[in-house]
Design brief:
The protein is mostly helical. 78% of the residues lie in helices and 0% in strands. The chain contains four helices and no strands. The mean pLDDT is 80.
Amino acid sequence: MANSGRSSGQAPSGRRGPKAGSNIAARTVPAHLNSDRGVALDACRDALAPTLHAQMEGLKAIERFGRYQYSVAGDYLEWGVAQARANLTLGTPVEHFASQTTLCAQFGEKLQGRVREFMNLASETRASFNQLLGEATARLAETIKQSP
């Protein structure tokens, strides 16, 4: 539909945005923070520090678990290659059975070591997050104590 030249409302005044004198920031931000930006920045930094620290610990834990999974996958690959080599060697069925038994026993020992490694990794991760939670709780209690 073509514009018929009529306007459905008032003509624009040439100015966009809030009305003059309605500075929302001046009304909502306390005066002492409005005058000193460094105080506001420090307050935000202090408020977000535990979150940033928790994120860093989380990323470290994810990396450690990823490296652990990669090493377990490497153990499976080595075991599979060793089994394939054992299957390709010529020998009697008794020799073949003995080599497979030996390979399985070695792989079982490796997996037991990996399980112990996983338990250590999980307990260290739990301890670090419990420490972070304790620090954050202490910081929050201190902040609440200091507020009027």
